[in-house]
Amino acid sequence: MNPLAVASTFQKTSIKEFSLTNLLSSYPQKSFKKGAYIFREGHSLKYIYFIQQGKVLSLTNYLTAHKELSNGYFLPNQFINLNSLSNQQLKNQAAKALSAVTVTQIPLLAFHTLLRQTPCLSQLIFNALIEQGNSQKTQCHQLILLSSHQRIIHFLLEYVEKSGSRVGYEWVARDFFTQHQIALITNTARQTVSTLLNELRRQRIIHFTKKYLIIRELEALKKLAES
DNA sequence: GCATTAACGCACG
DNA sequence: CGTGCGTTAATGC
Asked: Mean pLDDT per 10-residue run, chain A (227 residues)?
């Protein structure tokens, strides 16, 4: 990670810590079981959802095609549906719990007043919105341009960059996804994930158990992602 | 060929 | 037991 990126994340976390937990503490929390929809297509969204615990899959529903396309995923301390702040509601939007999930539910109206009253919050939201917009755009491009193997490898690299830590020459990410979840996120089949991960393990580029993922040869993996 | 689906057996908590 | 994982054969484009 370059110094600039580090600086910006420090800035963000310091903003976050200033108020976000306190600010949202008065709003109710709601829990969802694995596989449940936090919201789905058709519902006009009346709340902003903020993840306390668990992983959430962002989806676009195409009922005619009988197909759900993943837009990516959200981790704790992220807002799920910031685009609901706009007047122009997105259709076919859905969010599904990948694990047991706890969210804080803030009514839209209350959130708008909070935004007006708290410049730091609006700055935080502004950053988050841009970040989410960008990542959805790249997700979309990857879906068009990359093979399923490449998409899975990109996912691995992205996840390690996001929540991995360096141990010696290797990278370790704890609290990893199941292969089924990886398949949902990358829009691939579960078996494809399984065979690819095992192939990469055979090549000693990665290692994994149910609990964690280790990337042994980051550079080799990056090369595979481009080829 | 590349990827998905179906199917089965196995491991682990 | 259920859930997740690894593999293979069949199918579609």
From this structure: 52 58 90 90 82 92 75 93 84 88 94 92 93 92 94 95 90 92 95 96 93 93 88
Q: Does strand B come within 7 Å of the CB of A67? A: no
Tokens 């055979």 appear where? Answer: A202
Nearest-CA residue to the C1' of B5? A189
Task: Give the Cα separation of A78 and A22 in Å (integer).
Answer: 15
Is residue A147's beta carbon less than 7 angstroms from any atom in nucleic acid strand B? yes
> Cβ of A113 < 7 Å from strand B?
no
Query: Is the CB of A53 less than 7 A from some atom of nucleic acid strand B?
Result: no
Alpha helix positions (H), chain A: 3-24, 108-117, 119-145, 148-163, 179-186, 190-202, 218-226
A189 CA from B6 C1′ (Å): 12
Question: What pLDDT shows up at residue A1?
Answer: 47
Provide CB contacts within 8 A for A55, sequence distance 6+: A73, A74, A75, A97, A98, A99, A101, A177, A181
Environment class of residue A12 by beta-carbon count within 10 Å: exposed (0-12), middle (13-18) or buried (19+)? middle
How far apart, in whole angstroms, are the C-alpha atoms of residue A62 and residue A53?
28
